[in-house]
Each structure stands twice: as C-alpha cells, then as structure tokens.
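Figure 3 (text version): structure tokens given as input.
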C-alpha cells in the first residue's frame, strides 16, 4: 500500500491494530504451552481410542476440531491435527482425503463461534466492542449447524471412501 502510494507511512502505522496482534501473540504462547504440556496429545488419544467406524471418526473429527477451533485459532488446530489424521488413517487403512477436508472445513466453521476463533473475529471484537459472551451466544449455534451440515455433506460425497480398505 505504501509502495503504490495508497497510504502514507503514517497512515500505514495508524492502520495497524495492535490489540489484535497482542491477542494473536498471546494465543500463540498459550497454544505452544498447551502443546508442550501434552494437552493436544490427550485430545488426540481420546479421539483415537473411541473410533468405532470410519463415519464415527468423521463426525468425531468434525465436531472436536470445530469446537477446539472456536477457542484456539483455527490454523493452529489444522497444524496440530493434520499429522495425527495422516497417521491414524494410514494405521486404520482409510483414505485420508475426506478426513483432511473435514479438518480444514470444520476448523473454519468452528472458528466462527468466538472472537478468538480466527484473526478476523479478533479484529471485529476489538473494533466493535462486542463482549466475548455475546459473540459466543449469537454465533455458537450457527457454528454447530454449520458443522452438522459439513458432516452430512462430507458423509454423502465420500460415502465410498468412508470404509475400511
């Protein structure tokens, strides 16, 4: 924007939302500590021990990653879950594609539910002054319905892939 003379250097500095940057930085520190403490391994082991069928895995993945993405930035959940999904689908002899799609879609859908779900919501929350609880109460039901629709559509489109090989 500065190079093309759309904004001056001063205007560019004024456009930076430092509250959002601080929240993102704080979330990254929190996520790093949770990962080091083994929190995400506990979640992943919990999921692995409850797999009854490929379809059950799909729904479990969609709702767990969607709900976690509401509270921890969605990109982080994708980075943490992807290696697990690849290992798990290989071990269970399942095609990974529907599960990876489920992860990326549900992480984005779930992140809608809270201010801390994604950076855009952080900016909206900071600029609007909407309380976290109000944001959550209004958008959590939307996220849940979106996760259900995502699960049903993926199950329908990938019904042949959602079988043990």
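Below: residues designed for each position.
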């Amino acid at each position: 924007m500065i190079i093309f003379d759309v904004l001056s250097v001063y205007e560019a500095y004024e456009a930076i939302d430092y509250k959002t940057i601080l929240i993102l930085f704080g979330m990254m520190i929190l996520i790093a500590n949770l990962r080091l403490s083994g929190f995400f391994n506990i979640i992943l082991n919990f999921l692995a021990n409850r797999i009854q069928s490929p379809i059950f895995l799909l729904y479990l993945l969609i709702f767990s990653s969607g709900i976690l993405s509401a509270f921890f930035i969605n990109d982080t959940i994708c980075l943490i879950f992807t290696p697990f999904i690849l290992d798990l689908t290989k071990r269970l002899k399942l095609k990974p594609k529907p599960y990876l799609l489920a992860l990326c879609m549900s992480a984005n859908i779930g992140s809608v539910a809270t201010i801390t779900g994604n950076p855009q919501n952080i900016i909206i929350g900071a600029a609007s002054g909407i309380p976290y609880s109000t944001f959550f109460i209004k958008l959590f039901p939307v996220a849940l319905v979106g996760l259900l629709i995502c699960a049903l559509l993926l199950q329908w489109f990938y019904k042949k892939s959602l079988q043990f090989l």
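The radius of gyration is 18 Å.
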